[in-house]
Write a structure and sequence with these properties.
Blueprint lengths: L3 E4 L3 H11 L5 E4 L3 H11 L5 E4 L14 E4 L5 H14 L5 E4 L6 H4 L9 E6 L8 E6 L5 H13 L3 E4 L9 H17 L5 H28 L1 H11 L11 H8 L16 H28 L1
Helix pairs in contact: 1-2
The protein binds nicotinamide-adenine-dinucleotide.
The site of nicotinamide-adenine-dinucleotide (NAD) has 22 residues, from helix 1.
Length: about 300
Amino acid sequence: MEKVIVIGAGIMGAALARHFLSPGHPVALIDPADTARAAATKAIGDTPGFVSSPSVDALGPDWQSCGFVIEAVPERLDLKRAVLGELSRHFGPETAIASNTSGLRAADLARDLSHPERFAIAHFFNPADIVPAVELVPAPQTSHETLDRWQALLEGSGKKVARLGADLPGFVANRLQHAMARECFHLIEAGVIDAEGLDTITRYALGVRLALSGPLMQRDLNGIDTHHAIASYLYPDLAADQTPPKLLDDKLAAGELGRKSGKGFYTWDERQERKAKRMQALLPEIIALARRIDMEEE
Ligand SMILES: NC(=O)c1ccc[n+]([C@@H]2O[C@H](COP(=O)([O-])OP(=O)(O)OC[C@H]3O[C@@H](n4cnc5c(N)ncnc54)[C@H](O)[C@@H]3O)[C@@H](O)[C@H]2O)c1
């Protein structure tokens, strides 16, 4: 099993370490913050093959060469470029390097790297040890061999890899998420529906199918001619705002940031907290259903 180094032991880094440990990869988790390392080590438990360290330099001789390194440090271009540059000087060109950025451009991240052909973005979703999809995004210099190596590592550890052909803002998943959210905000602002009604329609109509068919298989099921006819009259009526809506500006100004501040579109009382925890606990069941579609076909 190839060794994997994860840089940053926060929300994503700790889950990435858990993910790669589970099929048996030796994993080193690096973070200068003692508190972050302690919390991650506690969450991961006493797992064979796991080490944590404040820096790559402080790792033992076994770790001076490594197949894969992925960074999950805070989303700041200057910090990520410094970390990636240092990694590329520390490890030879045979080490594949990735960033788990949420949306920084691969071309910008790769700028200070030696051997930039071994770099790609591997965008995981939170919780990274549970949600299967990973978007694999190339920088202009990324080699096919690098993408093949990351894909093999990710698929070998149970992930579903989507390889993008270009480095564009928001990759794919965030573009879809924001396109849908823009329409949601528009409908609420227009007084068509409230947040709860909107979530009910989404969950019990679109949502029940999305994990099983995806939007494009669903278009085939519904008929592309029907979709074309609807698109012809509906597109001109859809939200096309170029800035965040007033609804979000007002929520920000009122300090209504969602769960973290106790109020957002919902009030985060104990009942709402319990519901969110149930939702989180049920994610593996939905994923298992989605996987069954592909397994039965094979
Ligand atoms: N949280 C999410 O839902 C999510 C989802 C997908 C992608 N991401 C991306 O993953 C990355 C990490 O996000 P997070 O939510 O885990 O952040 P986080 O703040 O929870 O963790 C970041 C960790 O990096 C450590 N760190 C800072 N500088 C470092 C350095 N020089 N070397 C090593 N470690 C260092 C910090 O001590 C901290 O523990 C970001 O780029 C983020 O955009 C986050």
